[in-house]
Amino acid sequence: MKWDEFGAWGARVSEWAQAYHQTVGDRPVRARTRPGEVLNALPVAPPETPESLEEVFADFERVVMPGITHWQHPRFFAYFASNAAPASVLAEFLAMALAPQCMLWQTSPAATEMETRMMDWLRRALGLPEPFQGVIQDSASSATLAAVLTMRERALNWTGNSEGLAGNDRVRIYSTAEVHTSIDRAIWISGIGIANLVRISTRGAGRGMDPEALEAAILADREAGMLPAGVILCVGGTSTGASDPIAACLEVAERHGLYSHVDAAWAGSAMICPEFRHLWEGVERADSIVFNPHKWLGVQFDCSAHFLKNPDSLVKTLAISPEFLKTHGADGIINYSEWSVPLGRRFRALKIWFVLRAYGLEGLRARLRNHVAWARQLHDRLAAEPDFEIVTQQMWSLFTFRYAPEGVADLDALNLRLVNAINDDGRIYLTQTRVDGAMAIRFQAGQFETTEADVMMVHDVVTEIARGLT
Ligand SMILES: *Cc1c(COP(=O)(O)O)cnc(C)c1O
After folding, report:
1. Which residue positions does N6-(pyridoxal phosphate)lysine occur at (predicted)?
2. Is residue 176 a contact partner of residue 213, using CB atoms and an 8 Å limit?
3. Over the stretch 123-159, which tens digit does the pLDDT of each residue have?
4. pLDDT tens digits, residue range 41-73?
5. Are residues 214 and 263 in the same domain?
6. Strand order, beta sheet including 431-435
7. Longest Cα–Cα distance in the chain
8. How far is ligand 1, taken at its centre, from the CA of residue 140, in Å?
9. Ligand 1 centroid, distance to 137 Cα (angstroms)
10. 265/125 same-domain check
């Protein structure tokens, strides 16, 4: 294929994408593919000679499309949303056409300076105070890994990278058991070891970390000759939206000189609305905060906003050329690859710029407020059904519920059957989770094109299918 065919193909793909998005609601949300079906439809060996794009495109429709789960479907209520607003898709198209590597300022000054400005726009949008600066990471998992490495190096007086961990005091990190699995993996990869991720007990219905238990654990570890290094807190956990009491836990972390990281991957987007910020009150005391515009804000994957109160510790941990530190911030040049684990970086700031300008903060706030209000209506309607119960309270646009008709002994099996039947039906897509060991069905609203009618359909589909189960 040559560039002189690109314009026509670009136009055709754009038309296709527009039609897809305008009719995606007619498709079953979850793919109905059986394991191996797509694999077997693909030739075993690569082609030796060129094929026409016409053939490739026809196979895309034939082979790929039936195997796609439609994350941009307005009735996608599973996991968390992974939005790709049209303005974001256009920005990605441009970024892909340029395909710059954005590791150093000089490898694309526009990308670096756009990233600085966009992270500051997001800082203002979330109501975070001035000292915070930001970097765009590829995922929340990467941001958390960078934060954990920083905790380790800071506690080891910057000797971990050079000497390794053997012979050093045991580095200890604190979190509850409710945090995302990306925290476990960051602990593995950092060499700290999962035995040194201390699970602090929770208290209350909110399942948040008990700050007194945190303090006791830090003191006990110090007493035992270990090295308390950092605290990882969560705002809006993946399973039920559980959040730690941020102000109280950060006060303990600060008093004991621990580095703190707040994982608000999903719920961080909600903080563009001042009325949702009380659930992370005190967050300005954190050293590091991550949230994913690629979940609820309309900016497509991958785009993780990582804020740092002072990037020096992170840069000292990850910069590969130590002399860089001497000019850091002084001459206005930032090399963002020194702020992250991967060297190569895509031009991710462009899609934030397009989305914030195309929708405005007011447009984005209106969407999020609708999602929360519609989730509340659905919550109230299900709560009013005699054979349904709410399992965990609504957190932003997320709550869990279960079907609990009288006289059924095995509610777990019944609810698992229900989720499977709902997803086979195809009109909506929900996922399940476990709460205190028992099965619950999870609902979250967050897709960019979702309407009130889409959310209300969940009530009808769920009650209809549940009562039809025999
Ligand atoms: C989605 C999510 C993550 C992981 O995000 P990635 O960007 O996919 O790494 C981490 N923590 C929480 C709370 C999440 O919801």
Report:
1. 295
2. no
3. 999 999 999 999 999 999 999 999 999 999 999 999 9
4. 999 999 999 999 999 999 999 999 999 999 999
5. yes
6. 388-395, 398-403, 438-444, 431-435
7. 72
8. 5
9. 12
10. yes
Kindly give, in sequence order, each residue whose CB lies less than 8 Å from that of residue 434, ignoring residues fewer than 6 positions away. Answer: 239, 440
For residues 50 and 111, state if they share a domain. Answer: no
CATH code for the domain of 40: 1.20.1340.10
Q: Which domain holds residue 265?
A: 101-346
pLDDT tens digits, 312-335: 999 999 987 645 434 455 466 899
302 lines ligand 1 (CB under 6 A): no
Sort residue 129 into left (φ over 0), alpha (ψ -120 to 50) or beta. Answer: beta
Task: State phi, psi for 82 to the nearest 5 degrees.
Answer: -130, 85
374 lines ligand 1 (CB under 6 A): no
Are both 146 and 224 inside the same structural domain? yes
Helix, strand, or coil here: 444? strand
Ligand 1 atom nearest the C-alpha of 266 is 15
Q: How far is the CA of 41 from the centre of ligand 1 (A)?
A: 32
Of 289, 321, 346, the position where a domain reaches its end is 346
* Tokens matching residue 424: 């086979």
Ligand 1 centroid–CA 269 distance in Å is: 13
Is the bond into 380 cis (omega within 30 degrees of 0)? no
Q: State whether residue 442 is helix, strand or coil.
A: strand
Task: Tell whether ligand 1 has an atom less than 6 A from the beta carbon of residue 433.
Answer: no
Cβ(301) – ligand 1 distance below 6 Å: no
Helix (H, G, I), strand (E, B) or coil at 107: helix
Token pair recorded at residue 115: 């990233």
